[in-house]
Amino acid sequence: MPGTPRTLFIVTVVVAASLRLVFAPFTGHSWDMYVWFKSGEMFVAGDINVYGVEEIEGFPWGFYSYPPVWLYWIALVKYLTSALGLSINYFALLVKVPIIAADLCIGALMFAMTKRLNINQTSGLLISAAYLLNPVSVFISGVWGMFDSVAAALALLGLYLLINNRFTLAPVCLGIGGAVKLFPFLLAPVMLFYMRANGKLDYPRLASFSLLLTSPIVISSIPYVPFLGDYLSKLLFHTANIGQFTYWALIAPLTGSRAASVVALASMSIVMLALLYRSRNRVRDVGSLLYYSLAVLLVFLGLSPKVNVQYLIWVLPLLLMGIRSYGKQVNVWLMVTVQLNVAGAVFLMSSVTQVGYSLTNIGSVNSYGIEPNPVFWYFLLGSAGVAGAGFLMMTLQILGVREISKSVVGRSGITLILVALILGLFYFPAPTGIKLPEVYPRILVVDGIDTLLMSREGSWVETIEENYAVPTHVVILLSLDFYNTYRGYVANDTLNSYIRYKLDARRWTQYDLMGIVKESKSRGLQVLIGVLLAPEQRYVNYGIHGYRSTWLIENHRYLIDPSGRVNFSALMTGESKLTYAEYLSRKVLRVVEDFGFDGVFVSTRPEGIGDGEAVRNVNALLGHLRQALGPSRTLVVDGVSPLLEPGDIRSLLRNSDFVTLATSPWLASRNDPLSNTTEIGYYRTRIEMLMDSVGPGNSYRVLQSIYTFDFVEGWVVPALELKLELEGLRPPMNSGYVIYYGTVVSPYRLVLGR
């Protein structure tokens, strides 16, 4: 029956809409939906410059960083739901209405465009159904609430209008899509190539195309001209981030996020320009228009450092249509399309354990606590590696380097082998853990209060004992401004702005900190308050982490020397005539006494103490702290370079109980790849010399640093490397150690052993 495919398509659309709508009012990505809610709320309240908000206090995942069209929609939804007194369920539903509608439009456009590709209606129905009923597209629009399909639908509509000779409406649709999310602009050159090949491009039409393309984003951005710096900064925000659905998520922890971003963006730009140059005379018909449109998007997804799972929506319609359209490549297209969809589905299902997607969880992470090698973590990273390899394979295929694509990420499962090898490098030996010697002290530096107060079950003390080699001390790091502005214990005063690592928008207070101290003592742990000496630490890496020292930087800038280091010997202005070291020591002592801390941990990371001048500066603080704390409380200083002169080490020991050497050749080489002093053997020689210099009576006071994982800076020390460092550096050191950093996700387990 001729009408059967059309009837079945309508049924498919109804089913697809129902699948999404049944989840829409009750679910949402706990971070993104939180940003939609808060940015809409801010806009409605009259403060339209949401681009000026770098982050919500305590919430590390950034704020609104997209063009303004979507902002206007979520502001309208927020206004309507507030005016009508509707619950957040209605907010979630209304926010998702255009996303779900866009998904349905994509399916309809696919059904229509398959005809132009000479695909019969039955096959066209199956292709469009493969998108409409796809678990990935259903989840992202109906559950998550991310709006990539809105921009994708407009981009696909622009292509559809172009092949139907609607040369005015096509760039308008593409431009509106770019004003929703920027990626549709990548298709503009391919559309121009198509127009030129079909004799529809001259200078007037080129000017008209450019004007129509850019007008939507220019017009929608007019309210933000007074805030142009903030606006442009936010639109470029994602270039500094590493995505979660790419092989760069596996590589960046080894190379560093900044290096990975530079390499990835440079290679992507070069390949993109080469592809556009190559395709300039090849986009002649409907098939080649869609082929090279997909090619441009795949180059981005195959090489860009920022690729998230929702970006699959950009290419999924074109990939599905391409399965039946590109002859000899059909097997490769089919295999990679399946590979990407499976990876996307696995990633989304695994993310449920971390994000939750419940509207009751908005702004929070549904953490299961510090648990070594959680299954979902393997699935997340594994699916990212598989997807990244798939995108890369398709990029190589489209570029015509098919033999390389087969040998590097070929059809026989090499992709999975590579991912397994990378994961093995990261996490081996996961089941049994890495053995650490049973020495004293064993200090765990906890990277954020979240780590202690979001454990899965029972006491957080039991959790860290099990996974971090039964520490004797735990350190809670807070920035200088906590001490600078401390006026005494106030239970409800928030600590979020002083914390280096943040997981979600929960508000941690002095009352919570007091609870940590009390529980630590009741379980036999000593708890040290950590004083972060760096005046400011801000990192854009898997969100925005770190802190600012407003009191110090904005009000007492004279205390910071030209190199950006705090000068503790500097005199304070005003009547007190105290040095900053004296002032800070008094504040720290008051905190220690009010909360009952067992001592102080002075953290100089990431700069550390690397020369004599830094030693003298820190000693000015340590001397006053030693005097203030007295002999009964512990004082530790970290970040001390083993390359310092022995006399400098001895001077630090005179003012502290323990000095912690920065003993990680791997981390040193990562931070300074051109250095020739980062071999384990060289470190061992230096440490042996230092141990001889300080003498047997003091050698136990020189501690080793054990670096594992830093979510804030974005690195993971491979477990194999850590084992090599322990085997190579422990013999000359019979002292304790400091473990960096305890977090809610542990890449591998540390256990006590002989």
Q: Tags for this entry?
A:
754 residues; alpha/beta; elongated; 8-stranded parallel barrel; single chain; two-stranded parallel sheet; 30 helices
Describe the structure.
With 754 residues, the protein is of the alpha/beta class. Helices cover 54% and strands 9% of the residues. The strands form 5 sheets. It has an 8-stranded parallel beta barrel with strand order 3-4-5-8-9-10-11-14. The protein has a two-stranded parallel ribbon with strand order 1-15. Strands 2-16 form a two-stranded parallel sheet. Strand 12 (709-710) and strand 13 form a beta hairpin. Helix 8 (169-180) packs parallel to helix 10 (203-220) and helix 26 (612-629) packs parallel to helix 27 (646-654). The protein is elongated, with a radius of gyration of 29 Å.
Walk me through the topology:
Elements: H1 4-21, H2 32-44, H3 68-83, H4 88-116, H5 121-132, H6 135-144, H7 148-163, H8 169-180, H9 188-197, H10 203-220, H11 228-235, H12 248-255, H13 257-279, H14 286-303, H15 312-323, H16 330-355, E1 371-372, H17 375-399, H18 402-409, H19 414-427, E2 434-436, E3 442-446, H20 450-453, H21 460-467, E4 473-479, H22 480-484, H23 510-522, E5 526-532, E6 536-540, E7 544-548, H24 550-555, H25 580-595, E8 599-603, H26 612-629, E9 634-640, H27 646-654, E10 658-661, H28 665-671, H29 680-694, E11 702-707, E12 709-710, E13 715-716, H30 719-729, E14 737-742, E15 745-746, E16 750-752
Parallel strand pairs: 1-15, 2-16, 3-4, 3-14, 4-5, 5-8, 8-9, 9-10, 10-11, 11-14
Antiparallel strand pairs: 6-7, 12-13
Helix pairs in contact: 1-4, 1-5, 1-6, 2-3, 3-4, 4-5, 4-6, 4-7, 5-15, 7-8, 8-10, 12-13, 13-14, 14-15, 14-17, 15-16, 16-17, 17-18, 17-19, 25-26, 26-27, 27-29, 29-30
